[in-house]
Structures are given as C-alpha cells and as structure tokens.
Amino acid sequence: MVRAKNAAMQALGLDDHIEDILITLGTQYHLIRPLESNPAVFVNVAVDRKSANLGMARLTVKNVEGKLKV
Fold first, then answer.
1. Which of 17, 23, 40, 61 is deepest in the core (most CB within 10 A)?
2. Which band of pLDDT confidence, cut at 50, 70 and 90, is reported for residue 68?
3. Neighbours of 64 (CB within 10 A)
4. Which positions ≥6 away from 38 have C-beta within 8 Å?
5. How far is CA 27 from CA 21, 23, 46, 52, 54, in A?
6. Cβ contacts of residue 3 below 8 Å, gap of 6+?
7. Distance between CA 44 and CA 57 in Å, rounded?
8. How many whole angstroms separate alpha carbon 59 and alpha carbon 23?
9. pLDDT per residue over 15-54, tens digit each?
10. Distance (Å, rounded) from C-alpha 10 to C-alpha 15?
11. Max alpha carbon distance in the chain (Å)?
12. Rounded to two decimals, what is the model's pTM?
C-alpha cells in the first residue's frame, strides 16, 4: 500500500509524503506510518476499534516512530 500510494503521488506530480495510512476493519484500526528517516521502512500498528482512541494512537505511533533508529 505504501509503495502504491507513493507511485500514485509521483504519477500525479504531487510533491508530498505519506504521514500515515489508516485501514479500518470491523473490529480493528490499522495504522501504517513510514519512518521519516527511512520511508522504505514503516511501523504497522493494529488496535481494537471498540477501546482505542484513534487520535491518541496516531500521536503515540508518531512519537515512537521519532525514537526509532534504523
């Protein structure tokens, strides 16, 4: 998905980057966030839809991503 979205943005001439991708399932949210330091590597987190706070999940993944060294 990350590669496909990057290819689509390039084809459209968009000078931008993916911050994160959200996939919603019936019982879960999946957050995919490419690392700023290496966009070829990404963090994938699945959280329970009933108990998760999506905004807090995004902030937490962003904070963790900033601390990773790859």
1. 61
2. confident
3. 12
4. 70
5. 17, 11, 10, 10, 13
6. none
7. 11
8. 16
9. 998 999 999 999 999 999 999 888 889 999 999 999 999 9
10. 8
11. 39
12. 0.82
In this structure, are strands 28-34 and 42-48 parallel, antiparallel, or unpaired? Answer: antiparallel
Contact 47, 58 (CB under 8 A): no
In sequence order, which residues have a C-beta less than 8 Å from that of residue 48 and are 6 or more positions away? Answer: 27, 28
47: β partners: 29
DSSP three-state, residue 39: coil
**How far is residue 21's CA from residue 44's CA, in Å, rounded to a whole number?**
9
Please compute the mean of the pLDDT values over residues 4-8 and round it to a whole number.
90
Query: Tokens at residue 33, please?
Result: 């966030």
Say what the pLDDT of residue 37 is: 87
pLDDT greater than 90 at residue 57: yes
